[in-house]
């Protein structure tokens, strides 16, 4: 594992509206990981997906959940306190967490390795990892701390795990 100074834990979209029976099993794992990461002095960034009126999701598939004023957008209760200690909480409107705000933080802090976990493995977590790779960063998907919200758990392999 790289040193914590060059790494950030990116917790993707672990929000009330995305925690379902299929993703609930990952929430305590994520909470424990975040607690240990922060206790070791590591930087943590949480992302929150926000849908908006007229979005592609609403227009094309009629999905209007996760609107900015909804309680669905809040971090899962198990992560509320950790969110207060996070380096940042970034709101996003697309799958990838590699927003201009996160890219700015990456440059500012000199992070080279992104340890990525959250909901949903097959979309937002994966897109974040792929975009980090394309940006010449080193992404690590933490499979035990990732889950699908829509069905059976979709998992992405990683070649190493956090201890």
Set down the secondary structure blueprint.
Blueprint: E1 7-12, H1 26-39, E2 43-49, H2 56-61, H3 80-84, E3 88-92, H4 100-109, E4 113-119, H5 121-134, E5 138-147
Parallel strand pairs: 1-2, 1-4, 2-3, 4-5
Protein traits:
163 residues, alpha/beta
Can you offer a commentary on this structure?
With 163 residues, the protein is an alpha/beta fold. It has a single domain (9-147), classed as Isochorismatase-like (Rossmann fold), CATH 3.40.50.850. Helices cover 30% and strands 21% of the residues. The chain has helices spanning 26-39, 56-61, 80-84, 100-109, 121-134; strands at residues 7-12, 43-49, 88-92, 113-119, 138-147. The chain has a five-stranded parallel beta sheet, with helices on both faces. Helix 5 links the parallel strand 4 (113-119) and strand 5 (138-147). The longest helix is centred in the N-terminal third of the chain and has 14 residues, at 26-39. The protein starts with 6 loop residues before the first strand and ends in a 16-residue tail after the last strand. The relative contact order is 0.23.
Nearest-integer average pLDDT: 90
Q: How many β-strand stretches?
A: 5
Estimate percent helicity. 25-40%
Termini distance?
9 Å
Question: Number of domains in the coordinates?
Answer: 1
């Amino acid at each position: 594992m790289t040193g914590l100074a060059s790494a950030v834990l990116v917790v993707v979209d672990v929000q009330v509206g995305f925690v379902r029976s299929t993703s609930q099993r990952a929430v305590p794992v994520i909470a424990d990981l975040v607690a240990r990461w922060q206790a070791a002095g590591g930087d943590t960034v949480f992302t929150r997906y926000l849908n908006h009126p007229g979005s592609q999701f609403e227009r094309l598939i009629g999905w209007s959940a996760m609107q900015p004023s909804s309680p669905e957008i809040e971090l899962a209760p198990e992560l509320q306190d950790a969110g207060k200690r996070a380096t940042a909480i970034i709101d996003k409107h697309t799958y990838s967490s590699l927003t201009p705000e996160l890219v700015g933080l990456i440059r500012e802090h000199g992070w080279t390795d992104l340890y990525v976990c959250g909901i949903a493995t097959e979309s937002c977590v994966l897109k974040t990892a792929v975009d980090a790779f394309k940006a010449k960063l080193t992404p690590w998907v933490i499979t035990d701390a990732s889950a699908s919200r829509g069905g059976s758990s979709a998992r992405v392999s990683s070649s190493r795990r956090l201890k």
